[in-house]
UniProtKB/TrEMBL annotation:
A Pfam family matched in the record: Glyco_hydro_67N
All residue ranges annotated as the Glycosyl hydrolase family 67 catalytic domain in the record: 152-462
Active site: 302, 376, 404
Protein name listed in UniProt: Xylan alpha-1,2-glucuronidase
Domain Glycosyl hydrolase family 67 C-terminal span(s) in chain numbering: 464-686
Amino acid sequence: MWSKWLAALLALALLAPAAAQEEDGYDLWLRYRPLAGAERAAVLRQARELVAPALPSPTVQAALAELRRGVQGMTGLAPADGKRARAGAIVLGTPASLPPALRPTGLDRLGNEGYVIRRIAGATVIAAHTDTGLLYGAFAWLRAVGTGVAPHRVDERSAPRLQQRLLDHWDNLDRSVERGYAGESIWDWWGLPGVRDPRYIDYARANASLGINGTVLNNVNAKPEILTAPWIAKAAALADVLRPYGIKVYLSARFSTPLELNETATADPLAPEVAAWWRRKADEIYRAIPDFGGFLVKANSEGQPGPQDYRRSHADGANMLAAAVAPHGGIVMWRAFVYAAENPVDRAKQAYDEFQPLDGRFAPNVLVQVKNGPIDFQPREPFHPLFGAMPRTPLMLEFQVTKEYLGYATHMAYLGSMFEETLQSDTGHAPGLTVARVIEGAQAGHPTGMAGVANIGSSRTWSGSHFDQANWYAYGRLAWNPQGSSRAIAREWVAQTFTRAPRALDDIVVMMMDSRDAVVNYMTPLGLHHIMGTGHHHGPAPWVAELARPEWNPVYYHKADRGGIGFDRTASGSNALAQYAPAIARRYADPATTPDTLLLWFHHLPWDRPMPSGRTLWAELVARYDLGVMQARGLRTRWAALAPFVDARRHAEVAQRLDVQVEEAQWWRDACIAYFQSVSGLALPPGSRPPARTLEYYKALRVPYAPGHG
Ligand code: BDP
């Protein structure tokens, strides 16, 4: 009697309106907030007990702990530990541990990481071939319930379509984060290996909930010290924490490490002493981290050392490292993001020029990691021409989740739609051969992976803002299934993170789906790119022309002059187009068949060129900048109306950022129009507002101490 009364009281307390409960965002999408009435009762009915194999491994224990935490959070009551599978129980098991009557169909071809969730005899059975699969299944059940699926209806079978689903941290050993906008690194390198921040476990939970199965701990601009004994011990401590969550640790390696540590006389990949050093180093790492994932390497790019310093190829360098980790089952992710100051060729062409001829020359445990976009993570780029063009080389796709070029963690820009745009791009090399299909193994014969440059730091929100968490989430979900819909993923995320109230949920999803386009419009419409401020990449600077390397200068990318604007990458220009499959190259060769989103990426066009809208190119450019500002204002207005549905703290924190975004969108629009007008010499189209300040004012603005830029 008393216990019923207490439970009722507890339920009442938990039913307090969601909006009244302040949240700081730390719980991410794993909030498990109290359910009410029939929903709560339904979860209680289906999750009375948790049944697991005898002697559960740390991974199964993590799955059980998460289910317990979730059910307790949603209902106020923790499920009991059950022994027998019966109605109302959640049963976790592998084919070996489940009694035959409880073995669900659909276990074949699930691989090592897939799971099945089925109701059998009134119990919810979560089955997988491995404990990691069970952990993923537990999270999937919680996600389903958290997005409003009735607990007795959860019925899922899922397996990842990619093998490597990695976060790349650009975290430095002094705890700063290159291009990080969420505070300092979550890795407390100084405290490690002795001090293990409990936050590492929450990091692991969040990643496991998405199926992320690897993390590169340190910056691609790597220091030699990361491969010395003290740092290997630190990495090993992190590996120990992350292991139960199915997450392997990888390290970025500086190519010249042995030389710089004075342990060899050269870093030439073909020198026997160098290969031997790396073998010994790999052995040493694997003694500390038996399941170490392997190395990520940025070589001969932006001043980093590499095999070309010794007139060796990327394949020579990658294969030497690959041989060192191969006996241990490790891999090498060799980045194709290369361009050189001495190379006068269009920067967009350099990766293809260097890598495509090496197709088939890489060791089997090398993955060539190709950036999203032939230039550099811009708000919008065409897909990289290497996809589809290296059929005998496993290619990985690298996205930037941190928003170096899209307004840091201040502007709202949901990247799910950008990721989807790239993944669904047709490479034109074979029917249906999209970028997603390439990494799923359509050419290489086996799936490869995705890497996301993490947006995670020690900020309470993890990502520097509430909405930037969605980019981590969407990245992870698309790494699991590159065919996923960014809109569906946004819905899932909103339901778990903010609200399931249908109208509010719809409104937030609309905001998210518009947000990246808004950024493109007020920063780099119509295919413009890389016109951000020098170094820190914050704010507009299309006028910059005096930097040492030509391709550091925005004027290199937009090529605006009295006659027109845009980078001619057709046969009459750099002919970067020839790097694409003929069908794509043909389509983009003609401005009339080039999508306007990429027009100035591929073409240099006169200002008075008529556009499909009936406007001239000049008027269209101004109209897009105006549209971007309007879209940013629209985000702010819509968010204001959502106040009743979101707790006050998170609502206010988002609102502040949207205010800044509107201001900065206006800054972008005004500065770019002021500059391009000074070049075109044209009058503003009728009705459009002149920039608030003079071009000189915008040029004189400085951004000292911008985050993420050493
Ligand atoms: C650029 C960043 C730079 C990175 C580089 C890379 O500005 O900080 O080191 O990418 O990916 O976009 O290596």
